[in-house]
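Inputs:
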Amino acid sequence: MTVRLTEVEAYGGVGEDPASHAHRGRTARNEAMFGPSGCLYVYFTYGMHWCANVVCGPVGQAAAVLLRAGEVTAGHAAARSRRPAARRDRELARGPARLARALGIDGDAAGAYLLDPAAAVTLAPPADGFPGPDRVCHGPRVGVRGAAEAPWRFWLADEPTVSAYRPARRR
DNA sequence: CGGACGATCCCCT
DNA sequence: GGGGATCGTCCGC
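Outputs:
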């Protein structure tokens, strides 16, 4: 099964990004964010969802990119079997928990090195090349309370698989 | 297609 | 003990 990423969000490290899981320092949950680039950081949220990040900073300095959405380009049957609730194909990986679910990513995949071709989940350049800068949009991150104004969400223009923007919801 | 709402549990304070 | 880097269901348009 293959997903072409269409939307991501960047998160920073200790003391520099109030929206980041690493903002308050290293803990058992965010440990992977302080590890080597290219490894998978997964977290469990809202009592039921897994979300996947790619660690992207030097060792000891937390940084990660949350994989927010993508287009399923191969293996639709496998994706659909994991995501029976999807009404249309474009919803299979539209949203961070949906994308993780479509790819079969959960706590068992934590820490995996995504640039190893033999890994269960791998990260590779787009088959059709990288989109030009004129196609990359950016804006506020979704669902965060702190640093909501930082324009660290990036998505591709005119892609139906990009998730809907929702401000953080009050309790 | 989109807005409202409730589910559900692990980690940190 | 509180709250979350969300989603599925329900329902109206």
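Remarks. Residues 9, 11, 19-21, 43, 45-49, 51, 53, 66, 68, 85, 95-98, 141-145, 166, 168-169, 171 of chain A lie near DNA strand C (CB under 10 Å from a C1'). The first strand of chain A starts at residue 2 and ends at 11.
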